[in-house]
């Protein structure tokens, strides 16, 4: 079975000849801007293993960038897709009703930790960017306000509105002007506190920075929503500190502002909870709206916006919708994913994987000065590399070389962070213990090898 195999490179170089031919054709017909630095072509994939057309096996610690929490081609998902595809593939939900949409909405409404009376509703679209954009429309129609606040390090998508919301402006090169009414505050990146700010003063510092937005950009009574990731993804796998979240929730409540949790990457079990916002709810700071996508349907295009019915039913007819949102086959996959989480106890597995990785990564931190910080929640963990622990100079080139060295040994990794100096851990939660052991060995061996050069 492919899903129990270990990484194995059998060609003298990567890519092998068959994979190289596919990559050459890609360069001929696909825009260069859709970049890919990995010498990997997928022929088959199961669990946490990818096989290329030359027979090389790779251990996947990227998982489609957080899309494959239940693994590649999970048999139950494949069976659900086949069963649904034999009935019908699509019916636009604004025209006809299909039970997959309704049943998946019902299950998500029941488990989502959003603020309110428990009577929640769900709207489906196709991607993280789409659900984030729709969440903003929902917040604006509910509050009657024009502006939003987002945070440094954020990634929310690449549509006009969401790339405006996204912090890294390399994603917007040459496509301005951007959307109006989007203002940015500082996210608490505690490892990189500004010089002169102590840990004890960090909360006050970041709250003061937020209040500056009210003073200098938009008064609070014109802010519809604050949007943030419970654990920043592209920003470097930085968890939002719970004391800060509690303070943000209080500010939102005092000013009639909705709090939106972007759980596109951190949702669906990645943090050891189905939604990372469950940690917020545990300190009485639940969000008003949750957006989710990526692992919701194990690789099929689907995303959801979840909020209390009071908020959802304020939206005028026609403001939200779309041709493919809540596609029948994608919803069937989504229902299968929820069942897999329950049957295979993947939330507990996420916690177990995370605990093991944190232990290992912290050990490495004491051995290798190149590792500056280890952080995360559940099995959503980042390792930040620096050339100097005192100056915290980002080791961007080291991480770039580390990724290429690991892939040559059969381990696929991806970077993250403002400076691209963070290795992110996004392995499928169905990874076997043996696969995890081998992956950790490859990663440490590669860190050691590069560090000694």
TrEMBL record:
Domain of life of the source: Bacteria
InterPro entries linked: Aminotrans_3, Aminotrans_3_PPA_site, Class-III_PLP-dep_AT, PyrdxlP-dep_Trfase, PyrdxlP-dep_Trfase_major, PyrdxlP-dep_Trfase_small
Keywords linked to the UniProt accession: Aminotransferase, Pyridoxal phosphate, Transferase
EC number(s) given by UniProt: 2.6.1.19, 2.6.1.22
Reactions accelerated catalytically: 4-aminobutanoate + 2-oxoglutarate = succinate semialdehyde + L-glutamate; (S)-3-amino-2-methylpropanoate + 2-oxoglutarate = 2-methyl-3-oxopropanoate + L-glutamate
Catalytic class of the enzyme: transferase
Cofactor(s) this protein cannot do without: pyridoxal 5'-phosphate
A GO MF label: pyridoxal phosphate binding
Pathway, per record: Amino-acid degradation; 4-aminobutanoate degradation
Family indicated by similarity: Belongs to the class-III pyridoxal-phosphate-dependent aminotransferase family.
Protein name: (S)-3-amino-2-methylpropionate transaminase
Organism: Liquorilactobacillus ghanensis DSM 18630
Organism ancestry: Bacteria, Bacillati, Bacillota, Bacilli, Lactobacillales
């Amino acid at each position: 079975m492919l899903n129990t195999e270990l990484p194995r490179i059998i060609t003298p170089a990567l890519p092998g000849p068959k994979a190289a031919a596919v990559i050459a054709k890609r360069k001929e017909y696909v825009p260069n801007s859709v970049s890919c630095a990995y010498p990997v072509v997928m022929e088959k994939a199961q669990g946490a293993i990818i096989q290329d057309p030359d027979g090389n096996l790779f251990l996947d610690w990227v998982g489609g960038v957080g899309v494959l929490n239940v693994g590649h081609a999970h048999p139950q998902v494949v069976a659900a897709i086949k069963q649904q595809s034999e009935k019908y593939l699509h019916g636009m939900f604004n025209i006809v009703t299909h039970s997959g949409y309704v049943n998946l909405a019902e299950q998500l409404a029941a488990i989502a930790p959003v603020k309110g009376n428990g009577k929640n509703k769900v709207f489906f679209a196709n991607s993280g960017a789409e659900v984030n954009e729709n969440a903003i429309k929902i917040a604006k129609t509910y509050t009657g306000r024009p502006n939003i606040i987002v945070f440094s390090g954020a990634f929310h998508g690449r549509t006009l509105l969401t790339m405006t919301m996204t912090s890294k402006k390399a994603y917007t090169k040459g496509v301005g002007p951007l959307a109006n009414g989007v203002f940015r505050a500082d996210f608490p990146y505690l490892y990189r506190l500004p010089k002169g700010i102590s840990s004890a003063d960090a909360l006050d510092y970041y709250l003061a920075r937020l209040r500056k937005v009210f003073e200098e950009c938009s008064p609070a009574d014109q802010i519809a929503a604050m949007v943030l990731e419970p654990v920043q993804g592209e920003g470097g796998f930085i968890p939002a500190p719970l004391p800060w979240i509690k303070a943000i929730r209080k500010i939102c409540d005092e000013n009639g502002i909705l709090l939106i949790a972007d759980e596109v990457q951190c949702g669906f079990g990645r943090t050891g909870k189905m939604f990372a916002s469950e940690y917020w709810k545990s300190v009485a700071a639940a969000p008003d709206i949750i957006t989710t996508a990526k692992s919701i349907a194990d690789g099929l295009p689907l995303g959801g916006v979840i909020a209390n019915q009071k908020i959802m039913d304020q939206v005028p007819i026609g403001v939200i919708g779309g041709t493919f949102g809540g596609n029948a086959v994608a919803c069937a996959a989504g229902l299968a994913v929820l069942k897999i989480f329950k049957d295979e106890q993947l939330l507990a597995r996420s916690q177990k994987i995370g605990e093991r990785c944190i232990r290992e990564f912290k050990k490495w931190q004491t051995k290798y000065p190149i590792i500056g910080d280890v952080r995360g929640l559940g099995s959503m963990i980042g390792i930040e590399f620096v050339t100097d622990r005192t100056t915290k100079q980002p080791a961007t080139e080291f991480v770039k070389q580390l990724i290429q060295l690991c892939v040559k040994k059969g381990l696929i990794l991806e970077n993250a962070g403002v400076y691209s100096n963070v290795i992110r851990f996004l392995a499928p939660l169905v990874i076997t213990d043996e696969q995890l052991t081998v992956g950790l060995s490859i990663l440490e061996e590669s860190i050691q090898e590069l560090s000694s050069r």
